[in-house]
Design goal:
about 35% strand, Immunoglobulin-like, 7 helices, Peptidase_M4/M1_CTD_sf, Zincin-like, alpha+beta, Peptidase M1 membrane alanine aminopeptidase domain-containing protein, 4 domains, 30 strands, about 525 residues, eight-stranded mixed beta sheet
Length: about 525
């Protein structure tokens, strides 16, 4: 996407033009995106369209939970271009928090532009300023900023690759793997800023990296001291969770409470600095797939940065729905910091703090630069730690389900087919709920090899009595003799081969049935909550 912005330092307003090239997914329909600014002109594939053709619609999640939907269907797997011209002003988002977004004149010929993202408030990511997809998508942005009417030099601070032209023009490149939660930008008069740059080498790499630390000139922070803190925190976190994958870190002390994480950067206060730096691994290393998945990175980062000790979970505490699964919820649940961090402390008590740390390190190693959903996190933790009772913790303190009245009746039925897709070996697994059981709100199917090693997991939701569900699972090459078991709150079968046995047939580029003597009486799709 290419975006050109012209800011008027006299009025604090701006004009923008964005050109989006987009590729539809596997379904025909009306594409959606978001932008919290006033659109004036629209072109679709080079043809002028009414601005109402990309109007905002209410998605039922509160006054600031809106999206834009193109008023015409487009074909599956098709490629299109949309060009928008729009006015740039304070975004139509929830502007709560200590450091909200700002675009305003700060004096004659002086302007401030702060992206001001915030996870806890609706519509507070890149869509505030630039047309954007929801957080599951990855896309690059070429941003050109021109300032007119300025009476003094201005400085642009960003985590993108910055090229300066004239004193009043900047070009910023944000990479293709960024999502809508990644971008950092601060524009202020140069004489209002103080700056320190330091170069360090983080073990185990000997490659030098740059730390840039900024503040308003009247800020109380000692920038050299804070730069040293950043270096120490990066070093410790790299030792715990794997190498820092960037060649710089950019920090802006904004003079307010709290902070906000960006890829390789933060706008923060000294008290929140450690928390925000650790987010370089979880939140802006491995990224939440949706706003409802934002709980896990805040929860784990709070657990790490605050040094919470392992402690057993209190299952008499009220259930908490940290992940609603609603696709258009546009904020992170605030209980992520409290209930969520205690959840990770509880898992550390269950599996051991070091086992949990290694599991999260492997998560970052395998998923850095990619998005992660809540169910994918649950599946990874169970497979990596082999602690199937993690199901219990997610059931009550992530999905918000109360205790079931009796043991869940869901059981593994069969592996019905295996095939290869895009080089990955996939299996279709069937589970069934007993006719006399209650609805199973949340369960996890675990496949283990003959040595008891977990080779694959899948999460399901809301399976009624007497019904079956089909789950797709990724299998490693050479899988055979797999044991399947379904785990749910208050039900953790042994998974002994004599009780849960499946035969797997693996042939490349073919689909082969692998059915045991049992068959389900009905079939229904597995519900996906998170």
């Amino acid at each position: 996407m290419a975006v050109s912005v012209v800011l008027d330092a006299r009025s604090g307003a701006g004009q923008a033009e964005a050109v989006m090239h987009y590729h539809l997914g596997p379904h025909t329909g009306c594409p959606l995106f978001d932008l919290r600014q006033e659109v004036d002109e629209v072109w679709i594939d080079g043809r002028s369209a009414a601005r109402e053709s990309v109007g905002s619609i209410d998605v039922g999640e509160g006054p600031y939970a809106t999206i834009r939907v193109l008023d015409r269907p487009q074909s599956a797997d098709s490629i299109h271009t949309m060009r928008l011209r729009y006015r740039l002003a304070v975004p139509r988002s929830d502007l709560g928090g200590a450091y909200p977004p700002v675009l305003a004149s700060t004096g004659v010929g002086r302007v401030r532009w702060s992206f001001g993202m915030g996870d806890l408030f609706d519509g507070r990511h890149l869509e505030m300023w630039i047309p954007s997809n929801l957080p599951f998508d990855h896309f690059g942005v070429e941003l050109r900023v021109k300032l007119v009417g300025a009476s003094t030099d201005h400085t642009l601070i960003t985590n993108g690759r910055l090229t300066c032209g004239r004193a009043d023009e900047w070009s910023v490149t944000f990479p293709e793997w960024f999502t809508s939660v990644s971008h950092m930008l601060e524009l202020r008069p140069a004489d209002e800023l103080a700056h320190v740059r330091t170069t360090v080498s983080l073990a185990p790499s000997s490659h030098p990296m740059t730390i840039d630390v900024w503040k308003p000139t009247d800020g109380a922070e000692n920038l050299r001291h804070e730069a040293a803190r950043i270096a120490r925190t990066l070093t410790v976190a790299a030792g715990q969770f794997g190498p820092y994958t960037h060649d710089r870190y950019t920090c802006f002390f904004h003079g307010a409470d709290g902070g906000m994480e960006y890829v390789a950067g933060t706008t923060t206060s000294p008290g929140a600095l450690t928390h925000e730096v650790v987010h370089s691994w979880f939140a802006r290393g491995v990224l939440p797939a949706r706003d409802v998945d934002g709980w896990w990175d805040e929860a784990f980062t709070t657990y790490v940065a605050s040094g919470l000790p392992p402690a057993p979970l209190d299952f008499t505490a009220p259930p908490t729905e940290l992940c609603s699964g609603r696709p258009f919820q546009r904020h992170t649940h605030p209980a992520a910091y409290t209930v969520g961090s205690k959840l990770f402390a509880g898992m550390a008590h269950t599996v051991g703090a070091e086992v949990l740390r290694r599991a999260m390190r492997r998560l970052h190693t395998s998923r850095a630069g990619r998005t992660l959903s809540t169910t994918e996190l649950e599946q990874h933790l169970i497979a990596d730690t082999r602690a199937v009772t993690i199901v219990d913790a997610f059931h009550r303190f992530v999905y918000g389900f109360d205790e079931p009245r009796r043991d869940c009746g869901v059981r593994f039925e069969r592996l019905s087919a295996t095939h290869t897709e895009h080089g990955r070996k996939l299996a279709t697994a069937v589970v069934v709920n007993d006719p006399d059981a209650e609805i199973c709100r949340h369960y996890v199917l675990v496949l283990s090899d003959p040595l008891g090693r977990i080779v694959s997991t899948a999460v399901g939701f809301d399976l009624p009595p007497g019904r079956s569900a089909t789950l797709r699972m990724r299998l490693p090459a050479g899988s055979h003799g797999l044991t399947g078991a379904v785990h749910a709150r208050l039900r953790h079968p042994s998974g002994h081969p004599s009780e849960f046995r499946a035969r797997v047939v693996m042939r490349l580029n073919t689909v082969d049935a692998a059915v045991d003597s049992r068959s389900s009486t009905s079939s229904s799709p597995a519900h996906t909550k998170c």
